[in-house]
Amino acid sequence: YKRQNLNRRLFGVLFPDDFTPSSRYAGQLQSRIELAEPEVGRVFAALSERLEVCNSRLEGVTPHFAPADGFNVVNDPQKQTAEISYEKRGIHYSAAADEQEKRGPGTVFFHETGHMVDHLAAGVAGAPLSDDIAFRQAIEEDKTAFLSAYQALQPADQTVFLRWLRDDDYSKHSLSDLLGGLTGNEIAGLWTHETSYWEKGDKITKEAFAHFFEASMGAPERKLERICQFFPTAYGRFRDLIAAVDVPDEQKHVLIKT
């Protein structure tokens, strides 16, 4: 394995040299970046140079970064599900599968890089941006408002809502996952983490941050609209956290979090 095998930058991210700008997937990612919410796109652009995509088929791929500098994004065509490993300092996913993703091309890439941005923006060694008391309180506030409205419905209307949430509409995957995480998967659609996942510490803030980030990076359909409808307070706080991120070009490092 040699450094020159990784020498092509696309929208800041370092990709293998066989991943060309003319590829369909690169075009899909680029289109989403161009449609990103301004502040979220700004932070992605500022931190993207710390992200490096590797092909798992390359022999001896190892992280090239010092602890506070960045992460690898490992493209494994055989990978069935995305995995993020802070021990291995990388995202492991299948770009080919993400290109055909039913929830929209780039969903996995931007969700997992959302997790990375969460850590990188806080300097990696520091607490993630999502580890924010006001963000957690905002999520709880939105949860309370939702449950109050849901429980006020007649049983028949609750059933109608659940059918709506569980129909084959991929724009609801973030909504489904977060409502599931807040209700022990009692109120959820087709896309959720296992109930046991939510019991491992405070996962809801981390997943909310990543879902909000992905939806803000030019997501197709009505993803962001759904999030703003059901999590208006939490998304507002997410925007505050993103807006506070300052990554000077000469430093590419930040420790700003309120």
Topology at a glance:
Elements: E1 8-10, E2 13-15, H1 24-34, H2 38-47, E3 51-55, E4 71-75, E5 83-85, E6 90-93, H3 95-99, H4 107-120, H5 133-151, H6 155-165, H7 173-182, H8 195-198, H9 203-216, H10 223-230, H11 232-243
Parallel strand pairs: 3-4, 4-6
Antiparallel strand pairs: 1-2, 5-6
Helix pairs in contact: 4-9, 5-11, 7-9, 10-11
What does this structure look like?
- The chain is of the alpha/beta class.
- The protein contains 11 helices and 6 strands.
- The strands form 2 sheets. It has a 4-stranded mixed beta sheet with strand order 3-4-6-5. A two-stranded antiparallel ribbon has the order 1-2.
- Strand 1 (about 10) and strand 2 form a beta hairpin.
- Helix 4 packs across helix 9 (about 205-215), helix 7 (about 175-180) packs antiparallel against helix 9 (about 205-215) and helix 10 packs across helix 11 (about 230-245).
- Mean pLDDT is about 80; it is low at about 1-5, about 55-70 and about 250-258.
- Proportion of β residues? 5-15%
Q: Strand order, main sheet: write it out.
A: 3-4-6-5
Number of helices: 11
Oligomer category:
single chain
Percent range for helical residues?
40-55%
Rg from Cα:
18 Å
Ends apart, CA distance between termini: 41 Å
Q: In terms of per-residue confidence, which ranges show pLDDT below 50 for 5 or more consecutive residues?
A: 1-7, 56-70, 250-258
Mean model confidence by pLDDT: 78
Major sheet size, sense and barrel closure:
4 strands, mixed
Order of helices and strands: EEHHEEEEHHHHHHHHH
- Record field, number of beta strands: 6
Shape: globular
SS class:
alpha/beta
